[in-house]
Amino acid sequence: MGVAGHNDPLLGDTTCGSLLQQLQVIWDEVGESDEDRDKMLLQLEQECLDVYRRKVDQASSSRARLLQQLANSKSELTRLLSALGELSVSGIPDKTTGTIKEQLAAISPSLELLCRKRDSRVKEFAEVQLQIQTLRDEITGNLQFGEHLEAPHVNEDDLSVKKLNEFLFELQALQKEKSNRLHKILEYVSSVHDLCSVLGMDFVGTVTEVHPSLDDSVGVQSKSISDETLSKLSKMVIGLQEEKSKRFAKIQALASQLSDLWNLMDAPVEERQPFHHITCNMSSTLDEVTVPGALALDVIEEAQLEVERLDQLKASRMKDIAFKKQIELEDIYARAHIAIDTSAARDRIMSIIESSSFQPSELLADMENQILKANEEALSRKDILEKVDRWMSACEEESWLEDYSRDDNRYSATRGAHLNLKRAEKARVLVNKIPAIVDTLVAKTRAWEQEHGLPFTYDGVPLLAMLDEYKVLRQEKEDEKRRMRDQKKINDQLAAEQEKLFGSKPSPARPQSSRKVAGARANGGGGAVNGTPVRRLSALQSGGRTASRDGRRDAARPVAPVNYVAIAKEDTVSQASSNHTGPCTP
Q1: Coiled-coil ranges per the record (predicted)?
Q2: pLDDT by residue (tens digit) across 90-120?
């Protein structure tokens, strides 16, 4: 049979022959008769024929459909070429050769291309014809507000480029005529909108008085472009511009009055901020005022009420304003360590205010000028004052270091002892820099005095005199230290001779009170024995300088030393007397 040798690639090694052999083996095992075997084989052959027959019928039907599809495609291709006005299209085969599918595959791209062209051309024709009809009705006035035309019918039998160009030429002529009119309409509407916004007027209610289509919610193409509409809009814009000019002049005058009153009374920013939308127009031109509501009637009324209120407060607040400026001036001098006579300045302000020819603006201008000069002077002193602070800080550390060095328990394992050790290391480094700091400060001070032609004072005391005195006292202190070292050597020699004479070294009797004082000074640094330039000169000069702002000058501000050596000598003699002991008898 024909199926016996058939090899199906989908079944792999399994073929009809192999399956028949398996069937023969099974029959042999079962013991089927030859007659039954022939019937089964005949049945298999008939089933195979039925399958082949069905496949042939399906193939014939598919061929008929493909042929019909090919014929329809050729007919549609011819019709589209005629409608689009094209003789041919690239890609169509000249001869109908090859299989049916090959012919369909060859003609399908061209057919799809022509279909896309047809759809695009129909859309273009519809859009152009609709615009032409709409423009005609708008220009003639036949198109009512809010009315929309339906899409026109397009003749698909004539979609040639020539016909489309005819429509486009007509459309361009109509569009040019409408564009000129619409451009003027939009300019007028925009001007009305901007003017109404600035003046705080209802734009919609104003512009729709001319024509309902001029509202922003209406599309541009739907706006009226008639001669009557253009004339009414032109007159409306001129009237609104005149109103804006009048209100602008009024708001500028009110803003200038507000600014003068605020400056006169030194009004804070918080009080001025609510009226920023008014004062911002002072330096603007008429065309620059575009903020919505900037020239509204309620804004003008608000400014008028504020001007009236400030006029009433002006006289009663002048004293507070003047003294506030004086406090500011005194603060600047206090930070710069410049001594001034505050009581005389305040008396002068009171006399000016109480005089009959009192002019508030002149007084405030004079005080502003004083503040400006004070700031300039403080700026010129800034570098020197920073170095003065560094010098006095170093003197504070020097005083603490001396107290710490006299503490016998400084190396004991007490709480915080390691912190004091670290501070002592840093203090020694800083103390070694004091001579260089003083020399630099002297050089800068002399340069400043030469430039400004007056002595540099620190809280009323000449700084160079303070520095010179400090250097002299520091030298005396060093001399005292050397004398004490020499005295200690003599005492040690006497003790050694006594030891040779009496056979033992006497134990010095250390006063208990001295130990307590040293322990208290180890961590404090505030009760220094030798004193620092901070407290010594401050205490001496606190009664001899004029304090600014009713004596609120910082009395503890570091200044140069006065009784430095005198106190150091007392402490040194006290320590020497406590350390020196006479011979001890057995």
Answers
A1: 49-76, 463-497
A2: 555 554 677 878 877 777 787 788 888 888 8
